[in-house]
Design brief:
Elements lengths: L2 H10 L23 H8 L9 E5 L5 H10 L2 E6 L2 H13 L6 E5 L13 E4 L5 H17 L5 E5 L3 H8 L4 E8 L12 E7 L1
Protein name: Class I SAM-dependent methyltransferase
Organism: Blautia ammoniilytica
InterPro entries: Methyltransf_25, SAM-dependent_MTases_sf
Length: 198
């Protein structure tokens, strides 16, 4: 584990490191936090600002919410289906420096009704395409209730995700944030794909 991982956790007064496979299966993938170096790049993109509301799918212990709320001053909602991990997110919130702008929801992503204030969504491969499909349907419903500029961020997307996203008529490819230089090995999946809801 590199130094920035523990330093950021310490600065933000949270505990989000480590992987957790306890409740993963073929549809819901293990908890693994996005590296802080990747989140720094996203925060510096200017695509998430103070007036935005971010929804983090499969939030785990809440790192994305805590970091981006701290760096960009946005408000955040984290959705997590694993009760034990969601409890850890709530414990983090109690001590976190940016906790007041964050809320967590215990529940399944596909059943979560997206608030009409949400205009940024973040995914780090939290679940299979079978779950992504109804999740996107919920996002579209929210968008149609309140049309707004809405961006979806997909970090380290699988080929299956990319193929599926490219077929969505309600999504338009917006941009890509390259993160390959942050890690050894020139992994072509090291990027954040950004789509706009249309």
């Amino acid at each position: 584990m590199n130094q920035s991982e523990t330093q950021w956790d310490k600065l933000l007064k949270i505990k989000t490191t480590g992987r957790d496979d306890a409740h993963s299966d073929q549809y819901r993938y293990p908890y693994e936090p996005t590296a802080y170096t990747v989140l720094e790049r996203l925060a510096n993109s200017g695509l998430i600002r103070k007036n935005n509301m971010l929804l983090d799918y499969g939030t785990g212990k809440g790192r994305v919410c805590f970091f981006l709320s701290y760096q960009t001053r946005c408000r955040s909602i984290g959705v997590e289906y694993d009760e034990r991990i969601c409890q850890e997110a709530e414990e983090n919130k109690a001590s976190a420096v940016s906790g007041s702008r964050i809320s967590f929801v215990l529940g399944s992503a596909e059943n979560y009704e997206v608030p009409v204030e949400v205009d940024r969504c973040y995914f780090f491969n939290p679940f299979a395409v079978e779950i992504l499909r109804p999740v996107l349907a919920r996002i579209y419903e929210s968008y149609y209730r309140n049309p707004r500029s809405m961006l979806l961020f997909f970090y380290y997307p699988s080929e299956e995700y990319v193929s599926f996203l490219m077929t969505q008529e309600q999504l338009m490819f917006y941009d890509e944030i390259d993160t390959r230089d942050l890690f050894p090995g020139e992994d072509s999946r090291e990027k954040i794909l950004i789509f706009e809801v249309i």
